[in-house]
Amino acid sequence: MNLTKLLPLLAILIASTGQAQVQNRIVIPDILGFKTLQCDFHIHTVFSDGLVWPTVRVDEAYREGLDAISLTEHLEWQAFGRDIVASHNRSYEIAKPVADNLDVILIRGSEITRSMPPGHFNAIFLSDSDALAKDDWRESFAEAKKQNAFIFWNHPSWDAQQPDTTLWWNEHTEILNNGWMHGIEVCNGNLFCQESFQWCLDKNLTMIGTSDIHQPIQTDIDFARGEHRTMTLVFAKERTAEGIREALDNQRTAIFYQNQLIGREQYLRAIFENSIEIIDISRGQTHATVRLLNKSGLTFRLKKTGHGGDVVYFRDYEIKPHSRHSISVRFPIEGESRVNFEVTNLLVSPGQGLQCSYRIN
Amino acid sequence: MNLTKLLPLLAILIASTGQAQVQNRIVIPDILGFKTLQCDFHIHTVFSDGLVWPTVRVDEAYREGLDAISLTEHLEWQAFGRDIVASHNRSYEIAKPVADNLDVILIRGSEITRSMPPGHFNAIFLSDSDALAKDDWRESFAEAKKQNAFIFWNHPSWDAQQPDTTLWWNEHTEILNNGWMHGIEVCNGNLFCQESFQWCLDKNLTMIGTSDIHQPIQTDIDFARGEHRTMTLVFAKERTAEGIREALDNQRTAIFYQNQLIGREQYLRAIFENSIEIIDISRGQTHATVRLLNKSGLTFRLKKTGHGGDVVYFRDYEIKPHSRHSISVRFPIEGESRVNFEVTNLLVSPGQGLQCSYRIN
Amino acid sequence: MNLTKLLPLLAILIASTGQAQVQNRIVIPDILGFKTLQCDFHIHTVFSDGLVWPTVRVDEAYREGLDAISLTEHLEWQAFGRDIVASHNRSYEIAKPVADNLDVILIRGSEITRSMPPGHFNAIFLSDSDALAKDDWRESFAEAKKQNAFIFWNHPSWDAQQPDTTLWWNEHTEILNNGWMHGIEVCNGNLFCQESFQWCLDKNLTMIGTSDIHQPIQTDIDFARGEHRTMTLVFAKERTAEGIREALDNQRTAIFYQNQLIGREQYLRAIFENSIEIIDISRGQTHATVRLLNKSGLTFRLKKTGHGGDVVYFRDYEIKPHSRHSISVRFPIEGESRVNFEVTNLLVSPGQGLQCSYRIN
Amino acid sequence: MNLTKLLPLLAILIASTGQAQVQNRIVIPDILGFKTLQCDFHIHTVFSDGLVWPTVRVDEAYREGLDAISLTEHLEWQAFGRDIVASHNRSYEIAKPVADNLDVILIRGSEITRSMPPGHFNAIFLSDSDALAKDDWRESFAEAKKQNAFIFWNHPSWDAQQPDTTLWWNEHTEILNNGWMHGIEVCNGNLFCQESFQWCLDKNLTMIGTSDIHQPIQTDIDFARGEHRTMTLVFAKERTAEGIREALDNQRTAIFYQNQLIGREQYLRAIFENSIEIIDISRGQTHATVRLLNKSGLTFRLKKTGHGGDVVYFRDYEIKPHSRHSISVRFPIEGESRVNFEVTNLLVSPGQGLQCSYRIN
């Protein structure tokens, strides 16, 4: 068939991808001299078992204002292999021009997809995904290391592989000792693995949070209700692939999961303090009113902790995104008084929120 | 690679498609002894130039409570042909088991995709899409007719093909005379073609409204804001593929487009009257209050038309979905009084809303 | 000024209250032969320190599909007393005709508003609120009892009165012994008081959940995000004020708070089981797939508990409102296998979810 | 009763008004050296026939990011006069401290509420509302003028007063000639009066758009669906009451109504051009792609108008708030080509959108 006459038309047809888009980025402050980048390093398309074309993932990332993504197709599992036969690099190649056009950083990655042990791992910052397709999983890891990949263990508590308890197998010790594991997913989609959180703290590994999205993103995430995808916050010296890699190599991440932050204390404290602006404090002898503004798109849930006698303030207090508040405190005339609380949705270790203490008079 | 050990795992992976779904059907009443079926006969997937896997289209239809859909891939245009090589029937075959499982009626169709004239046409109720792939468009139409397809002209006013005015070409007369055109898209996505509306009335053709969706549906339609996909309402004797075909063959359709209804007067009047329930009317000598309930998910916009002197009621009035209202009318003591209005968003011909007149005393 | 000529106009002006309304009731099933009524017994208007006119509270209740409300103005505190001087019954009297018209059950009530101890109490099912306005709080309680009121303690853990711990004072023992306390608020707005929950279980008191709303309801509750007001579910023999009273007197309530249910086990179990419809179960020798439908507007969060070896199913599972699910279970060929889990957001005692166990083969 | 002990508590109770608030201002650009202020000069509270306390109106304005409001209680109609007896200035006095605290400009006003003719008028920038309460409406207007008020005619097409056609009565000529009418409401709530629009153009009067809100604002305006209150955009030299007055006196306003702008051409053109940022244009010999960003919260609907032969571009095109677009144009090799369109939702006279013409090569 002669397609020549169709071509001008088809150019318009295909251009419709991403023709009109609105960007809704969640405001999260930069901290400690680093840029806070919003990243998702675990995503699928029809080139493994996801349900959308690769460019859709870039459009989604653009609309959510993400800085970087990685399309991590399963090396061992092409759900649609009868219809789609392609290199393991193909997904990246298709998405790359669209990502460049929309200024989304696209990082080449693949998912090593094995039974437990060792389970699933993502290798990102690859140069050639095809080279990882090996029968023996140890060879896949070795090749990833050879390509200088950043490798993390995916969803250790996934019930399909660890149906009752989240075990660390001998194979994981071997992988770690071989330099094949640099991080662990603490959160994957709706899954939050407490063991992963502790392992990252104990073994000085990088904490990762990902969407592991297979559906069109809006099918799983109801943005109109204030939901967001699970993501990794990367505290980078610069907004580049290299900047992200340097931060990952130095464990400078936190996880944004179901309107909670999970991470090392110094980063969460800095995010909290950079989010809240004190507008003014009106002080009397025994009473103060603090007016403050949450400049971020984050929610903070405060719970009173032990404090000096006769200091009276909230027991539980919620600070919603971009909200302005007046908080009242009573205190005794004499002596220094402090307001102490835990931010229960900023988790610095399993079950433990960020502890805060501010002098009020 | 030996996949045997992976299989139990993979079965779980693939089952995640459509695992948890909520159905939100717009309530539109049955009329005149027919079931009102909500249908979309123009949809794309990655098997032409859409951006999702075919099963996604069935999931979307299930969630919106659609009764029937057709995946109408371009015969002449596979945007992803480098990676996906398949029969023109493949999209239907992949979607069929999921459709059966979710009780969505799936109708085999294809889009004949040509320069203007004659432009694009959909042929649905096909038995073999591959047989339509011909160089000469007349042969494609002839084959569709041979398969007893229902054929309609797509988006006659599409600016890529008719950039300034919407013309009826000689080829369309030929197509009509050959029995190759049974309906026309009056609405396609965000496009409403007044000329198509008039042609359907003049030539006794079936009015069709479709989404022509390429993106994941939620990218184009903001359901949280009350948007809906453009669709065809089919007034069928039964909820089956055969029932739909019989109704299409007898022009028993209307179009639901941007919270408007477009169609023949008798159907729109019946929908309006079956949607509104009069709860009660309290009448005095010169004053009545009508309490009514809109049982449907449709909006109705009323505009006063010419009426008897001294009858006083609203000038413009909006009835939102599922809302309850109290409407006041004053009238003279003597003689019969009527409330006359136009429902401006139920269009019975181009620019003309449904005319209503009700006796109030 | 002669207002006669204005009157026809003004009739129209005032009629605009509640002219057009949409009802969005959350579906919660009836149980155990009782009707499940959705009630809010703690509400304020401008007649104490709320910010809206009393009829607004009825309109709000109608829109949310509530069955019954009580306007419980503070007896001791009229924030707007400079401008509004009225009987303590006035709020009820203004709201009553609108409530009757919209079929919302309006129960006369008042809030006894004292420093701690004893704090705040609501007395509902009063016949004359004015008679409760006494200097001595004991006289107020005695009068409420004389009027055969149903009396409950409000927000025992409110930080303004119990800033650090939730104490039961001697006065509460006195009140209880005098027959002046029939229930306790376990939840009040965003406040959930664990101590109240335990006290209700220990002392056989009625569990109450209320909004204690002061603002226009939409200011505090973001319905578009799936939020709902805190309310009491009353399991009544009939949908009347008397039916509600009989149920309250017999502790047949549960609390709907932030998409959790709090209450006695038998009621929560019945709600769970009446909400979930098993569509079908397909069983093999070692594998079953359960298809189910959540017919309710409630969310259920399931967490696996201890179970027989070799039974493999979800670890955590969320069932959203009105959603359809396919759940897979593997089990050994021999012997009976059970799926055991806790519904973590149906709380039957502090920190304890509803325990469930179903035989799968 | 001794309230002394209650006072610390009550201070906390009353402080809850406006304790936590989020500001969502619609982005509308400044133009022509003026600040674009978002104002609503027609609002009711319980001090006439509105349904909320005056401070609620300030909170609502703060949350919507309004710059200025006026509480314009009816002078002749107190729906709740049995319970609320107060000066006509009272509403302003109650709201003023909250407005100052939240930096909302509060302008004292009143509504002169008469049968037609002359109907209802708002007088704003008053110094004493009580002085306007006169039996003879001419005396009320004279007093308003004496106080140097800005006076505008409200909802001329309101069906309760002009049930069939929108008439200009002799009394309006008298009022205009006396210097008692400086503007007219072109839009009031859901009402758009074409006659008012033309009168403002013909008689050089200031165009006003108002909410005339009586309900809690969220009852009438569904913000989650992208609705907004009808408001007046004031193009002021400074963000002060005086700045607003100067702009009103010089007809520097436009109206924001149902996602349309209505106003004089120079202001609407400036808003359109300041909203759209051209990111880049890639040009070939016969083809250009324009990438642009809508920096505003406004929607623009474009419709092609007459243009040179062989220039091919969209027929209808919608630009949503804060969206990014790629627009393609084809044109002949030789000669200058222009893209011509009307922005159909920026109305510069009744039924007439803003005409635009841009050279493309």
Give the topology, please.
The structure is a homotetramer of 361-residue chains.
Chain A: H1 7-15, E1 20-22, E2 35-43, H2 54-64, E3 68-74, H3 90-102, E4 105-113, E5 120-124, H4 137-146, E6 150-153, H5 170-177, E7 183-188, E8 191-192, H6 194-203, E9 206-210, H7 217-220, E10 231-236, H8 241-249, E11 253-257, E12 260-263, H9 265-275, E13 276-283, E14 287-294, E15 300-304, E16 316-319, E17 323-330, E18 338-349, E19 352-359
Parallel strand pairs in A: 2-3, 3-4, 6-7, 7-9, 12-18
Antiparallel strand pairs in A: 2-10, 4-5, 5-6, 7-8, 10-11, 11-12, 13-14, 14-17, 15-16, 15-18, 18-19
Helix pairs in contact in A: 2-3
Short description, anyone?
Chain A is built from nine helices and 19 strands. By secondary structure, chain A is of the alpha+beta class. Chain A folds into two domains: 26-263, TIM Barrel (Alpha-Beta Barrel); 276-359, Immunoglobulin-like.
Q: Can you give a write-up of this model?
A:
Four copies of one chain form a homotetramer. Chain A has helices spanning 7-15, 54-64, 90-102, 137-146, 170-177, 194-203, 217-220, 241-249, 265-275; strands at residues 20-22, 35-43, 68-74, 105-113, 120-124, 150-153, 183-188, 191-192, 206-210, 231-236, 253-257, 260-263, 276-283, 287-294, 300-304, 316-319, 323-330, 338-349, 352-359. Helix content of chain A is 24%, strand content 33%. With 361 residues, the first copy, chain A, is of the alpha+beta class. In chain A, strand 3 (68-74), helix 3 (90-102) and strand 4 (105-113) form a beta-alpha-beta unit. Chain A has two domains: 26-263, Metal-dependent hydrolases (TIM Barrel, Alpha-Beta Barrel); 276-359, Immunoglobulin-like (Sandwich), CATH 2.60.40.3090. In chain A, helix 2 runs parallel beside helix 3. Chain A has a 15-stranded mixed beta sheet that branches. The first copy, chain A, has a three-stranded antiparallel beta sheet with strand order 13-14-17. The N and C termini of chain A lie far apart (83 Å). Chains B and C meet through helix 1, strand 1 and strand 17 of B and helix 1, strand 1 and strand 18 of C.
